[in-house]
Amino acid sequence: MTTPTLSAAGLLKRYGRVTAIDGADFEVFPGEVLAVVGDNGAGKTSLIKALSGALIPDAGEIRVDGEPVRFRSPLDARRCGIETVHQDLALAPAQDIAANMFLGRERRRAGALGSVLRAVDRAAMRAEAQRVLDELGVQVKSIAQPVETLSGGQRQGVAVARAAAFGSKAVIMDEPTAALGVAEAGKVLELIDRIRARGLPVVLISHNMPHVFDIADRIHVHRLGKRAAVVSPRSHDMSQVVGLITGALEPGQDGALRAVSGARRTGPDR
Ligand SMILES: Nc1ncnc2c1ncn2[C@@H]1O[C@H](COP(=O)(O)OP(=O)(O)OP(=O)(O)O)[C@@H](O)[C@H]1O
């Protein structure tokens, strides 16, 4: 059996009386796009924070390539090859694209200039940033352009390309198409496709069902703080996934979906 690249079992996180993560399990496998869907407040963001080191769970286990890890900070997760693109993108608007690609991981000049004076190797960073953007098909006028001059889609492209460049194990994206128009969202989906083609798994948190069905290999449905089901977009349709999100449907013992009596129904009867 293939070992998941990133997995979690029995994660728990409480904020006072609120249980944000309630025994959640999670698995993403090499080379797949896993969509994570769920209602507002279902705990998707908290789950992703735990997987990216932004939140320390009260209990449960996280593994990378089958080995248990403990993320005390986002830096720990990054050191393990897990890169996350949060909704705020964490870009420095006044700085150029290359500087943003290497934010906090600047290349230093060779010799004493770099090691003693900490001089950054701007030419090397620009060349490498351009190479990554070209490879992933992110188009910009100039690599030396400040990020504040880019469109929303291009900014998303830069943040995602940065994650793909440094992520050796997995890239996690929180709602990457939420603020974008149709054409720009399409480009981000193409970018996700290219990252998958390089063999890097992508975890995509999204409310947009057409996008999820367009790109995902599997769909993790999160409900009431835990994983409620994992389904394939090839064997299930959107109304079934919505049923799982609302709790109108649940997987039975045999894995087939069954209606939950008394639950709020959405979508057509089946
Ligand atoms: N720092 C916090 N302090 C207190 N409660 C929190 C905190 N973070 C999250 N919660 C609560 O935990 C629950 C899950 O929140 P979370 O943001 O993970 O959900 P979500 O599925 O990502 O929702 P959304 O899609 O709206 O972001 C919510 O009830 C939320 O109010």
Automatic annotation (TrEMBL):
PROSITE patterns: ABC_TRANSPORTER_2. It comes from the Bacteria. Keywords: ATP-binding, Nucleotide-binding. Residues 6-249 form the ABC transporter domain. GO terms for molecular function: ATP binding; ATP hydrolysis activity. InterPro entries: AAA+_ATPase, ABC_carbohydrate_import_ATPase, ABC_transporter-like_ATP-bd, P-loop_NTPase. The keyword Nuclease does not apply. This is Mannose ABC transporter ATP-binding protein /fructose ABC transporter ATP-binding protein /ribose ABC transporter ATP-binding protein. It comes from Saccharopolyspora dendranthemae.
